[in-house]
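chain below, 516 aa
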Amino acid sequence: MLRFELYSNGTSAGEIPLQGAYVFGQDAIPMRAELVGSQGAIEIRKTTPGACGLALLWDTGQAGQYMLGTTRLPERDRPYNLNVELARAQMTHIIRKWEDWGLFDYAQAESMNKQCACVNGMFVESLKAVDPGAAGVLADQAVTEGVTLGEKIALFHADILLERRKSLPPPAGRVGFGCSVDLFATAADYTDRLTEAFDFVSIPVPWKHTEPKEHSYQYEQVDAWMNWASQAKKSVHAGPLLSFEPTQLPQWLYIWEHDFEALRDMIYERIEKVVRRYKNQVHVWNVVSGIHAYNSFNMNFEQLMELTRTACLLVKKLAPRSQVMIELVLPWGEYHARNQRTIPPLLYADMAVQSGIKLDAFGVQLCMGVPVDGMFVRDLMQISSLLDEFSGLGKVVHISACEVPSSTAADAADAWGGEAPTPKAGKWHAPWSQRLQAEWLQAFYRIAISKPFVESICWRDLADQPGHYLPHGGLCSPNRKPKLAYKELRNFKGYLLAAEAAARQARQDEQDEDEL
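prediction:
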């Protein structure tokens, strides 16, 4: 049995919300288990023996509200103190990343090292406390300070790597800034905003729209955006070509849901038609997106991997000059705890590499702000650690979609129909606002760009027009008026370009001196 007791302000906690909570096993892979919450306690009922951990949305006070996890713990009759175990996991994570990132040698990190010792002292005191309520108070302080310290360490490490990357000559030191486009946006100021701030555009090619009826094609909107990108001299990322997310699929395709061979042939025909049409205009093809998470046709593992292999091979054959990308959605993999016919994202990525699938890059979606699996708020150290997992795969990474809200108000024009109030998904430091969205963007971009294998970052929505994804997630208001995040992105891009120019001038000066 695995049971946790929770404490709030020194006393047993009351009602325990478990929305989004899940159990994970080895390598942080989510596993199926039943979570039963009662007054001040959580019981884990699982069929698989062995140690496991618990992740749930946890209020850290002034640091924010995040999806946090314990370490993996063995079963025992006596309950664990959840507050203490969350503090243990936070300290373990900080110490591990401090070592992995080699921060001991930096004099500038001395103050953070002292903070780390202080937070660790709080955690040790919580272990010594006899009263579980008092232990919970000390552990809560350690978690709050630990989350804040973890984010500070993640940004410090990012700035070190960013300085190194800025000094590299293009294209090694350059990262592309992009934005997904709304196929049906026609306003002139919409394209003006794209022209002002972005290097490339991501053009969706949804099967549901391009072939609403079998063998009845509609490419007018996609054609228009491809032509605009060519005229504006913007690089193009396009896709996904294959996605089982329900919003992407035409209704007529479900006729073939029990016939894998026929479905595979339909997919092959669809990909071939789209790639042949746009192969000379697209730099990066988002070939397969999220089939590890959205398994609408209940395919088995072998069938999903076969579709991935076939699709990538076909695109590489038809458009050999373009990058072939596999996109990972919901990258923490919570969905696997609810549906065992899915594949954990990093396992899927590793299998794609190990099995020799013809791909050049991985795409990663990182959107937060609605209370559904994969969208609960995570802190910056968790995000940085997640990106580090891709370093061993030997492939380029594109942040193919990122987004957070700019308000906590209901938003009837988003993809969730205004029924997903963002506070239930957690908060980064404070409730979402325009200022906080801009601060998160700057911090996230610093971390992502610092990773040497990240080649581009794409914001998901330009404006809060009808059909945008997250509530208030666009960089502009519905009338395309720039929010603070849009201005922050443009300024940050300008800062990087100026740094690149300075580094280029320094290299030229050094070369001139050598010649003299």
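The first strand starts at residue 2 and ends at 5. DSSP finds twelve helices and 20 strands in the chain.
thats it, cya
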